[in-house]
Amino acid sequence: IFYVFTDVLLSSNLLLPLEFLFEKLLSFVGGNKEISRAFTVGLIECTRGCKELSNIGLTPLTASLSGALISFSGISIIFQSLAFLQRASVNSWFFIKGKLVQTAITFLSLYLIFSFIL
Questions:
Q1: CA-CA-CA-CA torsion sign (93, 97, 100, 106)
Q2: Fewer beta carbons under 10 A from the terminal one: N or C of the chain?
Q3: Gyration radius (Cα) of the chain, Å
Q4: Which residues have a Cβ under 8 Å from the Cβ of 111 and sit 6 or more positions away?
Q5: Which among 44, 46, 36 is positioned nearest to 9, based on CA atoms?
Q6: pTM
Q7: What pLDDT band is residue 2 in, cutting at 50, 70 and 90?
Q8: Residue 71: is its pLDDT beyond 90?
Q9: What is the DSSP track for 26-94?
């Protein structure tokens, strides 16, 4: 469902502001429009974003963003997780904040590692 939902958002240009924001943020580490679009798509549907990043090619940035997307898992998986976590009385905001911190740590760690390897 989220794969198709992403197509609708892309074709209606509703993701352009988010793509533009990530293009500006990622420009400091070699990002461009194509990478920011793939990352934005991945925030909604992780598998699709990772596939699009892999099609761009292996760079420290694309590898790090792929790791960050896997760590974040996408809005689609987060919604699924929240449905089960509510039954366990887990605070939704605590879970989401934890995912964001985990994503940032993953990105920074992988970017440093891949900058030396690639």
A1: negative
A2: N
A3: 15
A4: 29, 60, 61, 64
A5: 44
A6: 0.91
A7: confident
A8: yes
A9: HGGGT--HHHHHHHHHHHH-HHHHHHHHHHH---HHHHHHHHHHHHH-HHHHHHHHHHHHHHTT--HHH
